[in-house]
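User: structure tokens for this one?
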Amino acid sequence: MGGICTQRILTQREKQVFNLLIQNYSTKEIAAIMQISDKTVRNHISNVMLKLGVKGRAQAVVELLKLQELSL
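Assistant:
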């Protein structure tokens, strides 16, 4: 009914990764900022792409913007 949907697609960490991605940080830079491995950053990105059913980072960003999970 008229309730607000509060369910989010992204975990807090995934959101952090994508917020840094849209600020043009590289995987390596994101890993350093978040103090996690490059592989973990890539895993977060892959997980989000799987959740959204998209094939690339750019497509994932576009979908997340449409879903209002991210904002520029």
